[in-house]
Amino acid sequence: MDLQTITYIVVGLSFALYIGIAIWARAGSTSEFYVAGGGVHPITNGMATAADWMSAASFISMAGLISNMGYGGGLFLMGWTGGYVLLAMLLAPYLRKFGKFTVPQFIGDRFYSQSARTVAVICLLVASLTYIIGQMTGVGVAFSRFLGVSSSNGIYIGMAIVFMYAVFGGMKGITYTQVAQYVVLILAYTVPAIFISLQLTGNPIPQLGLGSDMVGTDVSLLSKLDQVVQDLGFDQYTTSLPGSKLNMFLYTMSLMIGTAGLPHVIMRFFTVPTVKDARRSAGWALVFIAILYTVAPAVAAMAKMNLIRTITPGIVMQNANPYGQDVAIKYDERPDWMKRWETTGLLKFDDKNGDGRIQYYNEKTKNQEVTAKAEAAGWKGNELTVNPDIMVMANPEIALLPNWVIALVAAGGLAAALSTAAGLLMAISSAVSHDLIKGVFNPSISEKGELMAGKVSMAIAIVVAGWLGLNPPGFAAGTVALAFGIAASSLFPAIMMGIFSKKMNKEGAMAGMLAGLFITLFYVFAHKGLFFIKGTDYTHLIGGPNSFFGVTPEAFGAVGAAVNFIVAFLVDKVTKEPPEHIQHMVEAVRVPRGSSAVTGGAH
């Protein structure tokens, strides 16, 4: 059976499973729509949380980024997993004990202000809509490559699938669908990794294969990879850093505290019966997440090795000359996987010297020896552009794995993107229906009316998300990292101060959120030239590219968070302290005792 047919069958079966679960788990009340009734088992919730949290960025992009960046790409592993631990230890149990449906509701009640609730909704919408662009783009990439449809049609299909289980099922339908999506995505990630680890190192455990010798040699995989990438003019794989150490630290911090402030992940901890169950589900989620995150470095290194071995087969041989006519493969003899990925536009060949061969190396290297050898061989610059996002998806094809494995990867990529998209849409829908419509504009709305408002809000959010995926704004290239930066600079400090500072008042919290959000967006938008004319250089507004001590826009969220904290405490010092009953409530939330079931009301 050919690859296209098998892919249709595997992806079709996974979609049928999601829709079947949605029909079974229809939400009949606001409690079921917002928090799945508040009775989800900790293990079930842990698995759903893992799927919700591991987005297209984790499945598709992360290993590709590590593969492209080398050691420095570890900041994504440290930032995202560290952030989850921060969320599980410092936020989730206390927010669950507070017993509300949403993050804006917590902020509104804790800071005794509908204005604070509205500001939190704005921050949530900006972060979630920014994040969802990456998920819809991931859906388009997977569909366009594996199902033979355009990226646009792929996004339309993805919108339809999410609509079926998110609008009708709400959090209840999303929860059980995410459990199925976790199973699909984790199998899709680990099964190819096991095959490829066996091929390259003879070790079936990818985590161990990363440190093992390559088959038939006494040279370790990482040592060989270090050698070949340096021969091609790239930095040493195991020591390379993206920019300064300060930037790497702040980038990691932005991802970490941004993870802890992501509302769609926090919402998952409102679905369990008790505070104890919130802690248990956090632990289970970390176990489920660790399976993918410990495999990712191995996938990254092995994908890099397979790519180089395919394009420049001679270089992987011990002491081979990496330059010359005999090293680079002929374009007409390129493998089938390259032809398939060229149609997506994510892999491009530009024959700069007209020799019909694919020269792949770092043309911007500062290594004069590499430059001299390349020029002596008649090379005129790097001729192959490989988008990091294809490394995971293309890896099974590069390694010539069975068609069913390749089809499984397609289903896994779609599961990762759709699961996170559904969680984000749930956060957006609940912010509009529960926090704005019921909380601010129409407090007397009936439960039936609120449920309908939630479903309509979800449907509109899906349309908006699809439109953003089809027409991504100018900053879309860094949308995932930017979403974490926005959550880090706006929501995370407000939640932390709401839990651990009983003296923090509404004026301080609102001023901090707005200041953190504004300065982060200002730095990013000035950097990207989005103030007046897209693509125009407006970096002079902030003093030039990376003008703040060399910090990149993706790493600026940590700076925004610091501004948030500073502004909040300064404003708090010159305004009235919170009412006595609010201070008592904050103390009660921090007392390590149980909590009743979620009702959406105060305890």
Detailed description of the structure:
The protein is mainly α and 603 residues long. 67% of the residues lie in helices and 1% in strands. The protein contains 22 helices and two strands. It has helices at 3-24, 30-35, 42-53, 56-69, 74-98, 103-110, 114-146, 151-201, 206-209, 221-231, 245-260, 263-266, 275-311, 336-342, 368-376, 390-398, 403-441, 447-470, 479-500, 506-528, 557-573, 580-590, and strands spanning 347-349, 384-386. It has a two-stranded antiparallel ribbon. Helix 1 (3-24) runs parallel beside helix 17, helix 7 crosses helix 8 (151-201) and helix 8 (151-201) packs across helix 17 (403-441). The longest helix is centred in the first third of the chain and has 51 residues, at 151-201. The protein starts with a helix and ends in a 13-residue tail after the last helix.
